[in-house]
């Protein structure tokens, strides 16, 4: 087993994040603790504004917590300078977004290779591009620019881009949010396979129970706090998973976003 495979991919210790909004402050995350074991697929659910994206941004080092600790594969992100953090993210974390975030003027191949170019690395013949493209079923789309690809193909290119540095962890923020449900399900299946066949750890934000059903574990956020966590395999279908999610929300008290002026 490789050294990195033994490390806990995600550890969050009492992390909070507040944002200033004019004269007031919004507590977007409020004392979150979270451990994710290697090779686990975690779905993060919660209403709009519950802090899901903020959590993913903290984990990927796109923003820093106001207090608490974030460790990714044993690395305490607070000990890294901004420059080191950017390097760490590029090397160790794959990021996938709802809006794909592809560069319109670049071909699919160059979009996939972009993280290597950004790191000043000239892609070698064995950089894995063809293997990853074949794995994602886009090997015949590599010379196309994003505007001539379907939404599902664009998301596959974005996932391929997230894999080119071979990260152990992928963070996906509503990866199916811009796709029709059938295409969204095919993207979920792909993420599931990356977990099962390549032992990658995946954390995915979603509003959709039918998307969360592909995960091993569902974490429920409300008003910046984790108010529940359950195994999705305990539920036969996405309706019963949705019912469990609703029940957690209903039993966790009235919505009261913390804010202080
Ligand atoms: N950069 C920011 N500046 C100020 N407030 C912010 C910022 N980012 C998020 N917030 C606030 O923090 C809270 C949590 O936002 P966040 O985007 O994490 O929620 P979310 O659960 O991802 O919502 P959605 O499902 O709508 O994307 C919200 O009240 C939001 O307005």
Walk me through the structure.
With 261 residues, the chain is α/β, with parallel strands linked by helices. It has a single domain, classed as P-loop containing nucleotide triphosphate hydrolases (Rossmann fold). It has 9 helices and 11 strands. The protein has helices spanning 3-6, 52-59, 82-92, 108-118, 129-135, 151-163, 181-198, 209-212, 238-251; strands spanning 10-21, 24-36, 41-45, 67-72, 75-76, 93-97, 169-173, 201-205, 217-222, 225-231, 259-260. A 6-stranded mixed beta sheet has the order 6-7-8-3-9-10, with helices on both faces. Helix 4 packs parallel to helix 6 (151-163) and helix 6 packs parallel to helix 7 (181-198). The longest helix has 18 residues, at 181-198. Adenosine-5'-triphosphate binds next to strand 1, strand 2 and helix 2. Residues 19, 21, 26, 28, 46, 48-54 line the site of adenosine-5'-triphosphate. One of its GO terms (cellular component) is membrane protein complex. Keywords: ATP-binding, Nucleotide-binding, Transport.
Low-confidence stretches: 257-261
CATH architecture descriptor: 3-Layer(aba) Sandwich
The ordered string of helix (H) and strand (E) elements is HEEEHEEHEHHHEHEHEEHE
Shape: globular
Fill in the CATH topology: Rossmann fold
Output the strand order for the largest sheet. Answer: 6-7-8-3-9-10
**What structural class do helix, strand and pairing data support?**
alpha/beta
Task: Provide the domain count.
Answer: 1
What small molecules are bound in this structure? adenosine-5'-triphosphate
The number of helical elements comes to 9
CATH homologous group name: P-loop containing nucleotide triphosphate hydrolases
CATH class: Alpha Beta
The total count of strands amounts to 11
Distance between the termini: 50 Å
DSSP strand (E) fraction?
25-35%
* Biggest sheet record: 6 strands, mixed
Helical content class: 25-40%
| Mean pLDDT value | 91
